[in-house]
Amino acid sequence: DIQMTQSPSSLSASVGERVTITCRASQTISRYLNWYQQKPGKAPKLLIYAASSLLTGVPSRFSGSGSGTDFTLTITSLQPEDFATYYCQQSYGPPRTFGQGTKVEIK
Amino acid sequence: QVQVVQSGAEVKKPGASVKVSCKASGYTFTSHDINWVRQASGQGLEWMGWMNVNSGKTGYAQKFQGRLTMTRNTSISTAYMELSSLRSEDTAVYFCARRTILYHYYYVMDVWGQGTTVTVSS
Is A64 within 8 Å of A73 (Cβ atoms)? Predict the structure, then answer.
């Protein structure tokens, strides 16, 4: 199985700050990498697919990059509604494993 | 609108089985696979498996082999996830999600159910 490792596990940031979350795959997955946002008590929401493609309707302050084994999710100017937990997921092959999540909290 | 709606919370005893439903609307049910993901309290997301709704073909994560069964009833646009031999560690919120393929290659889970809480307790 492909293992997905995110860092950090949590971070504290202020509104307006730039935030970067990294995700590393245990083997190369090309660009088969998705990012999801989850708020407490809610289902995950797809933000980015194919490592860097923003889903329609997702604010442009979100961006993704990377290929192979190393990926990043960047939020350029953190907004109050962005405080949530973010998960990467590989879609290279089953089982379609998730990272352990990165919780973004208010500083 | 496009949505999937899950059945309500369940409380089960250890050793029992649970069957959760996932009813789709707003899109052609047989055109998209359904995936199941679970999340224990305070923990991350765990992918459980997938089902091709058109053919009924399934694929399960190794840790659930032998205990997990996914089925569907296309006449009522509903998918089901049944987990047997329940133990306390299976206490979690279970999500169904529609799988969409973007640009021919990229598999995403783009429509999620609201989640079903399954509690396993004696």
Answer: yes
